[in-house]
Amino acid sequence: MDNIIAVAAAILYVLAIATIVPGLVHQVGIRTKTVSASAFLALAFHAWLLGDLIIEGSGQNLSILNVASLISFIISLVLSLAMLKTRLWFLLPVVYCFAAINLSAAAFLPSTFITHLEQDPKLLIHISLALFSYSTLTIGALYALQLAWLDHKLKSKKALSINPNLPPLLMVERQLFKIILIGNLLLTGTLLTGFIFVEDMFAQGKAHKGVLSFIAWIVYSILLWGHYQKGWRGRKVTWFAVAGATLLTLAYFGSRFVREIILN
């Protein structure tokens, strides 16, 4: 049954992508209602699948593939809701593609990492903050890449500024720093709850998570300071945002990828 749900969700994500891409390539109107219907149906099936995969009688299965699928769901949901107000057509195909891949991997390549969060509410708070901070800052990295792409195209002779499906450059920049600010606040909460609630945070095999997350926090803090105090813009912002997201990816998935996927 889970495989059928995964296939249905993946097909709906692909349908949404197929509706968006021609509008970006040919600079024609995008059928918003079709995209919205496909995307939110895909999200509904995705949520159903996550419930089946994660919630087990013996606890919660937070395997690396399930967590990756959950993060993809959060990012897709946030950007799909944002799509109702702003033009995010450039980002949505990328996000929906990763969502389809991650949910398919979780459904067809099952793995197990059982936790018991119902017995430890403090750990649940820490993990929830970590998931939302990573998702938010990943969205920030996507916005930074979009900003760099728009800036490059606007400086070229292709005149993509008239494409009705692309958002204004300044709007993307404003939204980018709001997202990074929110994400860094969530990351601050993640680090604080980790220090307070996780007793073996710096035990062997776990220390890299705290260290890399803290370095990422420094990177984002410097980026915010540089923008608001020094007026940083352009490529420097993109490099900082992508570097921070890369550090968090290594922190959250590095050792578990090796342990669960390569060595398992």
Automatic annotation (TrEMBL):
Coiled-coil stretches: none
Domain Cytochrome c assembly protein: 38-262
Transmembrane segments: 62-84, 90-111, 123-145, 176-198, 210-228, 240-258
Alphabetical GO biological process terms: cytochrome complex assembly
GO terms under cellular component: plasma membrane
GO MF terms, alphabetically ordered: heme binding
Keywords carried by this UniProt record: Membrane, Transmembrane, Transmembrane helix
Domain of life, per lineage: Bacteria
InterPro entries: Cyt_c_assembly (IPR002541), YpjD/HemX (IPR052372)
Keyword Mitochondrion: no
Protein name: Inner membrane protein YpjD
